[in-house]
Specification:
mainly alpha; 2 domains
């Protein structure tokens, strides 16, 4: 019994450390060490507790596992047939897809063990400790940005402390917001809770997380937060329509929409890139006249009517999305699973003009160009399974983890449209967290307080 308890404590420590290290740059060796250690602990615990502890007969989970395996087989088949670089696809299959699957398995088995095994740590506390690093890193970043702002008098856009790149910080922030909002909505709508923390404390964290997004000037993070809050308001309206008088409900929703609109207005005024966005769109769409999207070292960025350079981020994303969609139309089976499938496709279409090794800043487009339309459909089906599990877990069984899964999956999927997050540690961390929430959302695992 003592040995089993020690393994649970060790697993908790390793997962806490892994969640903290995952988004940090230049930590691949440390990540692998923590990841391998956590897998070893889970394996030993399964041996001690019995395989039935982590087994499930849930249809959605079985379908999700089948879809992940089917995607792996499809990627392998692509490497053996139509891939432009079969050796690279096999490396990516092992280093990206299979490792991501192991991360998902680690998350699911961890939750199953804590729920059904002899864990000395209660499931709500275990989950809180696992996700705590995301909140900790975001709050530290907010404090650092405030310190820089105080010292310089200018908003410290793009200046991060230890997580490299503001986009990666915003992934953590948006995921933390999703978990917070799901917990608070569960308490409001069904009087159910999962996190062992007070509602006032949780609510107080929301403006701090939003402050981090504002100080870093992360437009995509702002989009994610806005859609999350709008989803919460719709959910609240649907769940409370029979309990609250129409006028009171309308007033409450109006106040919520006004608060969201105020946040958007403040964020828009702080980021001068918004001023150039509307003029950038038609220029970016004209990919044949303006070709900086192809190779900025060879072609200069186009200018707006007043002589200013286009909004580079918007210009590249729009142009790359259009050209990537055309590539997918021309090559419906893709070019072979790879993080560089987009540049591989461009190099085949525009030989000698492309900077190799680039991605499209759309994880979904990169994935589609790598695995083709069949792979994309399988991925959509896998996401749909996660959504179905989350929907059922919350609306049928009233478990906060179900709504957290729904919000996290939709946020992860939504960001994949405009950010390259279906790769590396972002894929691993997201699959780990999604599968962790899947296990907590299953009907017989209602351990909320």
């Amino acid at each position: 019994m003592k040995r089993t308890a020690s393994l649970y404590y060790a697993l908790t420590f390793l997962l806490f450390a892994l969640m903290f290290v995952w988004p940090l740059g230049h930590t691949i060796a440390l990540r692998l060490m923590l990841f391998s250690g956590a897998l070893l602990c889970v394996g030993l615990l399964v041996h001690a507790e019995g395989r039935r502890t982590v087994a499930t007969d849930d249809t959605y989970v079985k379908v999700a596992a089948f879809l992940w395996l089917a995607l792996a087989v499809w990627i392998l088949l692509g490497a053996l047939t139509f891939a432009s670089d079969p050796a690279k696809v096999l490396v990516e299959l092992r280093g990206q897809w299979l490792r991501g699957g192991l991360a998902g398995l680690l998350g699911f088995m961890t939750a199953a063990l804590v729920l059904r095994g002899r864990s000395p740590i209660a499931p709500p506390l275990m989950f809180s400790l696992i996700v705590a690093p995301m909140f900790l890193q975001t709050l530290i970043q907010a404090g650092y940005s405030l310190w820089l702002w105080w010292g310089s008098g200018a908003l410290p856009f793009d200046q991060t402390l230890f997580v490299q790149g503001k986009a990666k910080v915003s992934y953590l922030t948006n995921t933390a917001l999703a978990i917070l909002c799901a917990e608070l909505m569960a308490r409001i709508t069904f009087r159910r809770s999962f996190l062992p923390l007070g509602s006032r404390f949780l609510a107080a964290l929301i403006p701090l997380l939003l402050l981090c997004l504002y100080l870093l000037g992360v437009r995509n993070g702002v989009f994610g937060a806005v859609f999350l809050f709008l989803s919460c308001m719709v959910l609240y309206a649907v769940s409370q329509r029979k309990r609250i008088r129409g006028a009171v409900l309308a007033l409450t929703l109006a106040a919520g929409i006004a608060a969201v609109a105020s946040f958007v207005w403040v964020a828009e005024k702080a980021d001068i890139r918004w001023q150039n966005f509307a003029q950038t769109v038609p220029i970016a769409w004209d990919t044949q006249t303006h070709r900086a999207w192809l190779n900025q070292d060879k072609y200069p960025y186009p200018q707006l009517a007043d002589g200013r350079i286009v909004d580079i981020s918007a210009y590249e994303r729009i142009a790359w999305f259009k050209e990537g969609a055309l590539l997918l139309k021309e090559h419906p089976l893709g070019f072979g699973y790879s993080r560089t499938a987009f540049s591989d496709g461009l190099a085949a279409k525009y030989p000698g003009e492309v900077l190799l090794g680039k991605h499209s800043h759309s994880g979904l487009l990169d994935f589609a160009l790598g695995t083709g339309i069949p792979g994309l459909l399988l991925w959509f089906a896998l996401i749909a399974c996660f959504v179905a599990i989350g929907w059922r877990g919350f609306f049928r069984y009233h478990h906060p983890a179900g709504l957290a899964l729904l919000f996290v999956v939709m946020g992860f999927f939504g960001r994949s449209l405009i950010d390259s997050n279906l790769r590396d540690h972002m894929l691993e961390q997201s699959l780990f967290l999604c599968c962790l929430l899947v296990a907590f959302s299953l009907p017989r695992n209602r351990s909320e307080s």
